[in-house]
């Protein structure tokens, strides 16, 4: 089972959702993400949020089209995305893809990244028009070279990430240790059909990015 969660991030950051419309996928709307889904012609199975980012008319319109919508108070101890992700995790999904989680407010962006780290043992992807973000615990991983995502970056999310080894990359590494704040592993590329990355300690975030121009 695959669960797709659409948050309330800016529409210009959200990719074409229909390109991810697998037959077995369950769609979940979060706050303004419910409106994004409905306008795209996709009816979410579940909806969560305090809906403070939509108008009362939009909320009433959504309620006429949804069977399961949970309206939460604006004053609570979790974000709307955190609530939706908790539900998705309870369904024992094989993979969770999150859209509408980047762009706009930076506090929500960093909060959503923290959710990746907190649930590092779960197969979760955060996807926008330019990037796919995943978090990883120690182990060895195989990644496919695809022209869709040219650049691959690895960012430490704990004080130390130890034993990083990159094979099949333009800039290989062997048993390298990096610390929080390091930019050593930013903007690498695969030079073979497949590559591997592995490490022995810490949490590592991988960002695969399209070639839409360098910012720095």
From TrEMBL:
<dbReference type="GO" id="GO:0006772">
    <property type="term" value="P:thiamine metabolic process"/>
</dbReference>
<dbReference type="InterPro" id="IPR007371">
    <property type="entry name" value="TPK_catalytic"/>
</dbReference>
<dbReference type="GO" id="GO:0005524">
    <property type="term" value="F:ATP binding"/>
</dbReference>
<protein>
    <recommendedName>
        <fullName>Thiamine diphosphokinase</fullName>
        <ecNumber>2.7.6.2</ecNumber>
    </recommendedName>
</protein>
<keyword id="KW-0418">Kinase</keyword>
<keyword id="KW-0808">Transferase</keyword>
<dbReference type="InterPro" id="IPR007373">
    <property type="entry name" value="Thiamin_PyroPKinase_B1-bd"/>
</dbReference>
<dbReference type="Pfam" id="PF04265">
    <property type="entry name" value="TPK_B1_binding"/>
</dbReference>
<keyword id="KW-0547">Nucleotide-binding</keyword>
<feature type="domain" description="Thiamin pyrophosphokinase thiamin-binding">
    <location>
        <begin position="139"/>
        <end position="205"/>
    </location>
</feature>
<dbReference type="Pfam" id="PF04263">
    <property type="entry name" value="TPK_catalytic"/>
</dbReference>
<dbReference type="InterPro" id="IPR036759">
    <property type="entry name" value="TPK_catalytic_sf"/>
</dbReference>
<dbReference type="InterPro" id="IPR006282">
    <property type="entry name" value="Thi_PPkinase"/>
</dbReference>
<dbReference type="GO" id="GO:0009229">
    <property type="term" value="P:thiamine diphosphate biosynthetic process"/>
</dbReference>
<dbReference type="GO" id="GO:0016301">
    <property type="term" value="F:kinase activity"/>
</dbReference>
<dbReference type="GO" id="GO:0030975">
    <property type="term" value="F:thiamine binding"/>
</dbReference>
<dbReference type="GO" id="GO:0004788">
    <property type="term" value="F:thiamine diphosphokinase activity"/>
</dbReference>
<dbReference type="InterPro" id="IPR053149">
    <property type="entry name" value="TPK"/>
</dbReference>
<dbReference type="InterPro" id="IPR036371">
    <property type="entry name" value="TPK_B1-bd_sf"/>
</dbReference>
<keyword id="KW-0067">ATP-binding</keyword>
